[in-house]
Amino acid sequence: MAHRWTNDLTDRDVTPEDVYLTRRQWLAGAAAGAALAGIGGPAAASGLEPNTWDEITSYNNYYEFGTGKDDPAMYAGGLTTAPWSVTIDGLVERPGAYAFEDILKKMTVEERIYRFRCVEAWSMVVPWNGFELADLLDMAGVKPGARYVAFETVLRPDEMPGTRFPVLDWPYVEGLRLDEAMHPLTILATGIYGRDIPNQNGAPLRLVVPWKYGFKSIKSVVRITLTDSEPPTSWNKANPREYGFYSNVNPEVDHPRWSQATERRIGGGLFSKRIETQMFNGYGKDVAALYDGMDLTKFF
Amino acid sequence: MIVDRLNAVARRVPTWAVYVAYALPAPVLVYMGATGGLGVEPIKALERELGEIALQLLVIGLCITPLRRYLGMNLLKFRRAFGLLAFFYVTLHLLVWLVLDVQIPAQIWADIVKRPYVTIGMAAFVLMIPLALTSTNRAVRRLGSGWRRLHKLTYVVAVLGAVHFIWLTKGFQIEPLAYLGVILGLLALRLRPARGNHAA
Which domains does chain A have, with CATH numbers? Predict the structure, then answer.
């Protein structure tokens, strides 16, 4: 099931290498190591120049460590990520606690360079390393009655200073429809730039659903539950008027408090220009069919 | 008495020192924003810092009357400085939002009309304009008792500022609520009738 999706390479043939391989991508390629050499090629070909390691790891929303953008980088270091296990339960053939190392042994980790669009109207491009969620769900064996997948973030108040405040109803929970979860774009990321994913980005493994707002991509996952009904999700519980279950990136449906028509790509400095937000964050070709016939202003 | 000593110090501090000390963060923040000191998203960081300083200055301004009434501290000569500095920071905050953040004129108007927290912020800014314009000695003399009434708008501005902060926040967060709490507390201190006289 791995390798079901690759970056679009069509532009690569017409773009001379010295034009698209910028210094930044050289650095990126170097950091990623020999196994990932050539990272700049497909990235540049689809107009995706990845953000720097510093950008990706210093500007985070991970409210369990505080609501400031720099809080996760400051405080997430205290989170113990080894040993780690993920409990897979609910409507599965082989429920149980799966050790992180055992999962990794069975999964195929690949590089996925995705746009990442936060509901707050900023965005990045992240070169994730991860495996398809579908592969993990197949490992556990999805039972026929399952229709949704629920996820839960670790909750350790001793290690997560932000959880002392009721910013959200802890632990953080998220959910996907089963077909969304099984989609080849949906991955569990374990690395960035070929390195282990840092704690502030959701170590040791976090969901990445690139066509949805960032908060759907739940971090530091400890439980995955297959269910027959739509599971509760944290931001929807906190404010159902503002955050729907689907939360697909959609420039035509505004957040009640701000426009979603444009976004600011992190890294442009003080005079960074806004860019237009794309429907499904630019992944419409791959995922629009999942929502055929649905009113996306109602199921936002 | 510690209060007497503080009053003595305050008498010696010229008001221009307050202007200089509190105007300084503005260029420093812009410089930091331009050179990476405010992180990888300097626009939002700058916007937020300027807004928060403005709110703090409004709170300081609201402290002056209660400090005098309840503790006998006389900082009245600095009140205009804090008010004008608050207006200065609100203006910078607004400019960063207009020019660096939203950028698109049609979007700016849509936000002001459609987004309640923006509407409230704009209302607070607009209410501050007549206060800044009537901050001269001449205006104080000319308006007489009307000046005092007009400048009670500060109370409204401070509450609107805090509500603006609460409303733009995601989830349940303590800091903006604390600002509103402090502001309402300072306003409540004004409700109790002053005992004795106003001698300072």
Answer: 50-82+108-133+143-291 (3.90.420.10)
